[in-house]
Amino acid sequence: MRIVRRREKVLLVLALVGTFNGCASATVEPSDPSETTLAIGERGSAAGVSIELVSVDEDSRCPEDVVCVWAGNVKARAIVRIGTTDTAVTLNTGLEPYTVDVGVNRVRIAQVLPRRRSGAAIPRGDYRVTLRVDPIP
Length: 137
What we know:
Elements: H1 2-26, E1 35-38, E2 43-46, E3 49-59, E4 74-82, E5 85-92, E6 99-102, E7 105-113, E8 128-135
Antiparallel strand pairs: 1-8, 2-3, 3-4, 4-5, 6-7, 7-8
């Protein structure tokens, strides 16, 4: 009986540690000031440029548990604000345009989470898109 209780305590501690580790990793923001991670409808800033993620219109990425011939594409719309000027942009991960130039800046999608899994739809509110802003070379 004593061994069983000790084993239950160890399993409980491991489960709690795993839960807290999962929570911590879900809220980590990119440390690069050239990137911002946004949910649909959120506004953030990267490299001094204000960006609002308007929508994720397409997500045909290859599910991570499947082998595909093509990686697929994510198509997202955003509003880039420089000063008082708003510019609507459409960006893709697997098709043109990969980048959009706005003023002296080039905007692109750096990452899209969560990763797709076969047979599982991603709810609109779960998307997190990391956008990167670099100076035009």
